[in-house]
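tool_call: predict_structure(chain=1)
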Amino acid sequence: MRIKYQKLEDFSEQMKKYFLTGSLAACVSSVLISNQAFAANLSLYGAGSLRNALTEVSQDFTQETGIGTNTVFGPSGIREQAIETELQLGQPTADVFASADIGNPQKLYIKGLSSQPVEFTQNQIVAVFSSKYSQVKIAPNQVLDYLLNPNIKLGIATPILDPLGDYTQQIFTQANSKNPGRFDTLNSKALQLTGGTNSPIVPSGQDSLVYFLNKTQQADVFLSYYTGAIASQKIDPSLQVVGLPDYLSVAAPFGLTVIKNADPNAQKLADYILSEKGQQILHKYGFTSPTKSVPEPNYVWGLLLAATIGLALNKKLAEPKQKIQVENLG
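tool_result:
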């Protein structure tokens, strides 16, 4: 009996050792995996217009490098304000900021909160008409007449908070140069439906252009990015996308910057967006390549940028570049 008991005790002690060893290994493994995942995740803040393109870019980046990415999208002005607030509170979240303009990344750079921004892609502004006009072929040289028509509701993005709204202000200014008074006419009738803190809520899963132009009919025509317009037209082919005439055309450069004290891998993500692979993905969604780097800013220009709307996109940063040849796509 003593022999049997001794064997049972030995077996019990051996099992305890195995269990303890296994438990320690599992805990160490769990901690290592958790720490690796936490350390690897980068946070990419991007303009809402970049949602589809940069989601794919970040997924490919993670697949190729093993570095995880979290993405947050929204109006660039609001994203910039969020980054500033987080840094002031000592709770930085963003590592890389991809804006729909140069101005917002430039604000961060001037304040010493990020690297000097670079232009990483371009967009174009077009007019998107509702299904009311699906039977009428609208030419680019007719767009301004439609925008000025008092019976036609014009939808735009919110200036300052959303660069698309700023580009729209530039279009109004250029229209005014041909005929004084047009800026006031266009600006007073324009409905700021997107990009603001108090903008109407678009139901989850709904496309904003389709929603405002055809579902709620809050607008008859909307000044939008080309990339967003063609995505909306795929959802609802009754939308008519029309390019602007040359005298109204506005270049829309998009800026990229790495946030101060970002994760060491943040530059790798920025470089990937600028790489041939990243650019190919952006092209797939209708963006075009940047044509030059951003010039060194000066402090006075930065203050003017923060205080103005349309003129915030300084001509030095918005010189005519290669344009998308947008024909009447309706």
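agent: The first helix runs from residue 2 to 40. Proceeding to next step.
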